[in-house]
């Protein structure tokens, strides 16, 4: 599903980390982070000296990597990156990837378990996971027994908008529809991601965002074709720029760029809302790969990253909500209070986890028809 | 395109075994490169295009033609790509031909400097150069803004097919200029002088001497720019705001949204077929035109 964020690379210095995903980023700007194998520390306690992680770019706090290496005597810490789930899965399908740890989006884990790519976790080696992961993130449909993944962090799909450009800000998908076909025609951006865009018509109709019912999808199609001529851009990478320049007033997108926009005086009126009908929540998960060459070190990593202080540093680094109850207590209040990062309970109650609907042909046909009608 | 014909005799003939061996050794890296990195991937794509989507996405072996049958349900991306690549090629030609002609015949001492200036942008990432156009067409301070002020109506270039057109012409222009420049530089000036001596005007000289002589460069340049334009993905995404749906974007839909490699492979194969047919037609057209001109000159 969602692919986020080339712009991040261009603005890395200016903004806090925004987007962990980006299709365009594959065009050569990605760089594996800490390949620096700093020589430090004593030998680990029988866990070897290597850990190889395959992950979205810039998705682990540097300080935590340094701490892990120091504490466990890991000298060969490898961090390679992928730009979308498909790239990760393709690598696994091609045979032994050589990595220990990866971080797929949750809805892809059942397929990966099914294909035999994931190691079943020995939870006795992960006391922090058992102790600290919030019960509401356990036993979800993608891993009913919590044996194949550990929640990493989560976020939502919603509407980001410039408050001063709108008389009445959108509160629901219905508002979004009315504004898009009305006063904001030509000023609305949607992320170029099928799964996220379908949330809007399906939730507006009061259906499940994972619905594969032909009648539901047909009704969703009509809504999408209604709004298509009024859309300014399909853009997952640069929508924050379009909001900043006021070329766009509303974006169906992700929370990532919000804090960057709010931090600038000129765009401090940027806001984000999860529409009242409900929306999607996505979760990224830590998994251990079946053929992991350094399993003991991988267990140490999975447990280490859920230590409350370490996990809180992760949230502070990437501004995605943690699923760890103890860590949440250590996260700075301003981040905790930001509803775009940590949705309040009543909003969370209406969120729906995404399923892997990529195999549905009707969805794809509607999506392509929509794409060819964008902009009128 | 232009195949370099092996010079007969020098190495191969005469039964000199060592030379033959040397030739094979020298050709080996190229053959391996070509085989492993070009032919093999194409073969894989071709095989995949008859498969089916695996349960969890990707590829599962099969032999079905569904992926090809599905192509015709949604031909827009191909039509859009053909229109855009055709327009882009003509745009490159209209700008590239005078430029190459100037460089080859009129630039004089400044020639090397001008060629250097043409190459310098290539030292910067393609992506960055494409982003620069976003600023050039910025609706406040860029060309859009200036034009809007002057004309009194809102001019919008970013996010339109026109922006995509500008982007691809800019991006691929050097691929057109260099082959043209090389052929025009080798042009025998005495022919042009003879033509003038015989009373032909500038236009007649250009049409009957320069253009036919430049034809190989023109054909090479056109094909070199047309092919990448057909598969272009980044420029329509950045400058076109994703609103002009081209074949490259359709491939991304198949592979990354539907996670259906066989359908994507069939689309890729079909894109290659569309390009080959277009180029074959183009070559036929050019050659036919040349024959007509040659007889008319005589």
Question: Overview of this structure, please?
Answer:
The complex is a heterodimer of chains A (376) and B (298). Chain A has 376 residues and is of the alpha/beta class. Chain A folds into 2 domains: 7-154 and 283-343, D-Maltodextrin-Binding Protein, domain 2; 155-280 and 351-373, Periplasmic binding protein-like II (D-Maltodextrin-Binding Protein, domain 2). Helix content of chain A is 34%, strand content 15%. In chain A, strands 1, 2, 3, 4, 5, 6, 7, 8, 9 and 10 form a 10-stranded mixed sheet that branches. Mean pLDDT of chain A is 86; it is low at 1-44. Chain B folds into 2 domains: 1-39, no CATH class; 49-187 and 213-297, MetI-like (MetI-like fold, Orthogonal Bundle). Chain B has helices spanning 17-48, 66-71, 76-106, 111-119, 126-136, 143-151, 161-185, 189-197, 202-230, 234-238, 247-257, 261-297. Chain B is mainly alpha-helical and 298 residues long. Chain B is globular and about 75 Å long. The A-B interface holds A 3, 6, 10, 23-24, 27-29, 84, 86, 89-90, 93, 111-112, 114-115, 192-195, 231-235, 237-238, 241, 245, 247, 356, 358-359, 361, 364-365, 367-369, 371-372, 374-375 and B 53, 55-58, 73-74, 76-77, 80, 125-127, 131, 134, 138-140, 158-160, 234, 237-238, 241-245, 249-250, 252-253, 255-260.
Name some characteristics of this structure.
heterodimer, A: 376 residues, alpha/beta, D-Maltodextrin-Binding Protein, domain 2, ten-stranded mixed β-sheet, 10 strands, 34% helix, 15% strand, disordered N terminus, B: 298 residues, mainly alpha, MetI-like fold, 2 domains, 12 helices, globular
